[in-house]
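lol forgot to send this yesterday, sorry. struct tokens for the thing we talked abt
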């Protein structure tokens, strides 16, 4: 059994199902695709995405005839080594209601990955009732926006797709300092048309980032400057208005259980829109403290 880095997508494209090939093709440019070979035959595939402070496993697949032979564990061990070399934490996201949840958890435990926390998946269904309530919410928000503008200055909202290169560079430089630790530029499949930045005096002061996983749109990242002089609400409103004009039927909002501020923000402000779907996502995280230097 050997683990190889895949930099030529066509080497493995006929050995794995279409969704596996999709992830490999997406991630190959980032040097984050690894394949296990058994007797020269591709047996398992792992795709890893690198962020600023961590590495996240975005896809893991083992062909049926090679299961229960340690292929998955070998791939996770490789990902752990790659993360360690970057001095980064390694994340594996597991759906609790998946048929493979117990298997993935066992593999993670075998390489000493520790359970971290659960996420709450909130569902937004685009229908006539939502559009009506959203427009009412926008009207109610106008006094708040006027108050914010009067207090902090004029604001404008631009999409990631419409923002110039200089704006994106400024935002990147602020990630981790004036904003939280999220890095929207390293999120897989960031939907730039539905992700928005709040600008003031030519400077980004808040943003939200939306990504797509398969046919699902995930509202996952929302952040404002730590100084308390900005709000992500204008970006959220722009996102909602964009939704109302689109063909999107459903959006999921992912909030970590440990993020009480984020949960309160969603529940208190947008409870009419986002309904709790189920607590079906578990994060498995390997903390840096568990990684021993060679």
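and heres what i got for the seq, position by position
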């Amino acid at each position: 059994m050997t683990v190889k880095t895949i930099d030529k997508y066509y080497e493995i494209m006929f050995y794995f199902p279409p969704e596996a090939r999709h992830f490999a093709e997406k991630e190959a440019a980032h040097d984050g695709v690894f394949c296990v070979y058994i007797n020269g035959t591709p047996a398992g595939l792992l795709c890893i995405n690198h962020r600023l402070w961590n590495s996240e496993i975005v896809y893991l697949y083992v062909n049926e005839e090679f299961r229960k032979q340690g292929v998955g564990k070998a791939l996770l061990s490789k990902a752990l080594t790659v993360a360690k070399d970057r001095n980064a934490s390694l994340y594996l996201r597991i759906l609790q209601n998946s048929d493979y949840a117990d298997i993935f958890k066992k593999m993670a435990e075998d390489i000493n990955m520790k359970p971290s926390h659960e996420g709450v998946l909130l569902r937004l269904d685009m229908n006539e009732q939502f559009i009506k309530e959203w427009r009412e919410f926008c009207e109610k928000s106008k006094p708040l926006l006027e108050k914010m503008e009067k207090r902090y200055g004029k604001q404008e909202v631009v999409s990631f797709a419409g923002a110039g290169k200089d704006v994106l560079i400024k935002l990147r430089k602020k990630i981790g300092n004036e904003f939280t630790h999220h890095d929207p530029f390293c999120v897989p499949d960031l939907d730039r048309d539905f992700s928005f930045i709040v600008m003031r005096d030519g400077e980004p002061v808040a943003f939200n980032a939306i990504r797509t996983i398969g046919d699902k749109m995930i509202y996952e990242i929302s952040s404002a400057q730590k100084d308390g002089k900005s709000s992500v609400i204008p970006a959220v409103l722009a996102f909602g208005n964009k939704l109302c004009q689109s063909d999107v039927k459903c959006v999921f909002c992912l909030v970590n259980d440990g993020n009480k501020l984020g949960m309160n923000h969603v529940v208190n402000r947008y409870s009419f829109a986002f309904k709790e779907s189920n607590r079906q996502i578990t994060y498995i995280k390997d903390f840096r403290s568990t990684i021993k230097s060679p």
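The first strand starts at residue 2 and ends at 5. anyway ping me if u want another try
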